[in-house]
Write a structure and sequence with these properties.
extended, mainly alpha, 0% strand, 95 residues
Length: 95
Amino acid sequence: MIAAAGLSEYRVPIAGLPFGHVLMDTCRAQQELSFKATPVERWARDTAAGCAASPPAGDSRHYAARAQEIELARAYAQTRASADAAFLEQLPATD
């Protein structure tokens, strides 16, 4: 679907690119160093505030395709909603 939409070079613009996606296990840091993670609500708020305060000098790599990405996401959401509705209509009624 992504390639058919003309986005064959698409890369998810999160999670430390260009290094790839990372899932970090902090158990040993918690046990050995008494590490305590920042609650996600605070981390997200602080991260968003920091990014807003220091915007990048230029667009991210592949940003030129952003309009296509949005169009594809909207088309997918619409298709998915239609498929979900059709599926639910086929279910037997419950009383």
